[in-house]
């Protein structure tokens, strides 16, 4: 496996305020992961932090909250990732909310070749065409990166950043109303029940889609986990996978020579007194990378 490089991307620009007068706490997640020894335990190079612009709660209906700043941040993150990828390293991006996915999407779109995405997420294929509950890029990022949405879905004139048919959404909830549209648009769906029934087989099914490409990115949203084990997310929906299942499926994906990088998003330390869930997630990352190196 290539040298791992950790880059903090502590942006909370893509979320609604959890309550009036407060800001989303996911920007604190990289600190919890680092305090859990993630850098040393992975033997990773430290690429520092890409500081996010100031969070602004104000929102005008019809627009995306913090849209201009999210666009700037995505371009800057894409630039940072390009340098890491050009050096032959494997970036591990610590978010932050899911809007940081626009950075890897744009970075891969700029590179020669055709690239895929494996999204480990509870799935929320929300966009202005199918929901009035829009305005927060964190909840629309999967749709944006595959071509649905406004300005943020076409930065630098690119749309889509990654093709829907080259995208696998894993860990989705069986009751997600947006799943049918995602499938119709070409995304490959693997629900949480299938992951739970056989994480290795689920990983193999995902790899069958993305391994024929020139490489693929892994997006890990902590809400893919069941809220019984990971309550520290902004949308804790039941029916998710366990930590052990995540470790197994992630290890299978990371063992592929085609994996180019990984981002970890939405874990909110403000919702995790004592940070036990965050430390457990760090343990899973270490174990999954360890398993991948062993099987490579």
Q: Can you offer a commentary on this structure?
A:
This protein has helices at residues 29-35, 38-42, 67-86, 102-110, 141-145, 179-184, 192-197, 199-210, 243-254, 276-295, and strands at 4-9, 45-49, 90-95, 116-120, 167-172, 188-191, 216-221, 259-265. The radius of gyration is 17 Å and the shape is globular. The chain is α/β, with parallel strands linked by helices. Strand 7, helix 9 and strand 8 (259-265) form a beta-alpha-beta unit. It is built from ten helices and eight strands. Helix 8 runs parallel beside helix 9 and helix 9 runs parallel beside helix 10. An eight-stranded parallel sheet has the order 2-1-3-8-7-4-5-6, with helices on both faces. The protein has one domain (4-295): Arginase, Chain A.
Fill in the keyword field for this structure.
8-stranded parallel beta sheet, 8 strands, 296 residues, 10 helices, alpha/beta, Arginase family protein, arginase activity, metal-binding, Arginase, Chain A, hydrolase, globular, Ureohydrolase_dom_sf
Given the structure, what is the number of helices? 10
The poorly predicted ranges are: none
At CATH level 2, the architecture is: 3-Layer(aba) Sandwich
Which range best describes the helical content: under 10%, 10-25%, 25-40%, 40-55%, 55-70% or over 70%?
25-40%
Average pLDDT score: 94
What's the main sheet like? 8 strands, parallel
Q: How many DSSP E strands? A: 8
Which strand order do you get reading across the main beta sheet?
2-1-3-8-7-4-5-6
Concise synopsis of the structure shown:
With 296 residues, the protein is an alpha/beta fold. 34% of the residues lie in helices and 15% in strands.
């Amino acid at each position: 496996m290539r040298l791992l490089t950790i880059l903090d991307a502590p942006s909370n620009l893509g979320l609604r305020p959890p309550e009036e007068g407060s800001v989303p706490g996911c920007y604190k997640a990289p600190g919890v992961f680092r305090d859990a020894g993630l850098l040393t335990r992975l033997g990773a190079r430290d690429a520092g932090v890409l500081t996010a612009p100031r969070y602004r709660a104000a929102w005008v209906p019809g627009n995306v909250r913090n849209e201009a700043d999210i666009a700037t941040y995505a371009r800057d993150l894409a630039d940072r990732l390009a340098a890491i990828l050009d050096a032959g390293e494997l970036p591990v991006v610590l978010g932050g909310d899911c809007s940081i996915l626009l950075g890897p999407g744009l970075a891969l779109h700029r590179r020669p070749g055709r690239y895929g995405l494996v999204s480990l997420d509870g799935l929320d294929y929300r966009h202005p065409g199918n929901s009035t509950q829009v305005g927060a890029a964190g909840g629309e990022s999967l749709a944006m990166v595959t071509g649905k949405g406004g300005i943020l879905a076409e930065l630098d004139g690119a749309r889509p950043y990654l093709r829907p048919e080259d995208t696998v959404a894993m860990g989705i909830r069986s009751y997600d109303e947006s799943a049918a549209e995602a499938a119709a648009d070409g995304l490959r769906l693997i629900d949480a029940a299938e992951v739970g029934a056989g994480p290795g087989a689920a990983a193999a099914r995902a790899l069958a889609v993305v391994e024929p490409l020139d490489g693929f990115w892994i997006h890990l949203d902590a809400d893919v986990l069941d809220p019984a084990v990971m309550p520290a997310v902004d949308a804790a929906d039941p029916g998710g996978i366990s930590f052990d299942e995540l470790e197994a499926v992630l290890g299978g994906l990371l063992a592929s020579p085609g994996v180019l990088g990984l981002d970890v998003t939405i874990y909110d330390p403000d919702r995790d007194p004592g940070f036990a869930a965050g430390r457990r997630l760090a343990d899973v990352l270490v174990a999954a990378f360890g398993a991948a190196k062993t099987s490579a």
